[in-house]
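WARN no homologs supplied; continuing
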Amino acid sequence: MINLDKIEEDYNLIFTTENKEIIKKHGKEQSIEKNLDFVIKELQLEIPIISRCPNILCRDYEMIKENFDYLKQRNLDSYDKETILHMLVIKPEELKRIIEQCQKYDILITPIVLKRTSKEINDIIKLCQDNNIPLVGEIFQKHPKDLENTISYVREHYGEDYLLPLVVSCEKKHIEKVFSYLNGKKCLDIIRTSPNILRLTLAEIIERETILHELKESFIVDNRFNPIFDLSRNSFKEKKNQITESKVIK
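OK structure emitted
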């Protein structure tokens, strides 16, 4: 039986319940400790990063080492630490195929891209090429079949001008809700130059619009959505708190 509590105590790790279940199901205690020691000492990875990829503790140590040696030959410094971690858990031959594909098509390798198999990556590349969609990381969030369905939906209902990476990466229901709202405000076309608003739910868009009313700012600024829609959720929360505090002071 794997003593995760002991490993947690030794390495000051905090695993989520979900992570623990993954490790208990697929890991072997000897491999876990060996792999953990390797990524901490050899890769100098911080604990929060390790906890984002629990599979690293379940893989065969020799496979991880083979991947690491291969990546060292290709300049480890070109990848961030979380990406390296996700690379190490992929079977060596598959990892080589993925890297070759990404280099050939100038695709930035990220944890999102690495969630896809080499075949899925190839299918996504073909879909994007056939539809003139840039090959950026977010496009790989979807399975090729789901992506194909979304591309067909957007083309049929809104036209090819809206076949943007961030648009087709969204779920159809989300696209329909946000597009319908923006269309009602006569500003749907702005999304072609300012698509980041799609990172927000409709409720979040309306909440931020309410703040704009309080600030007497426009929804559209210089033919783009107001910068408030580009703020991260934490940054927006801080801004909202500042506005609330200023009201109290007044």
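The mean pLDDT is 87.
OK
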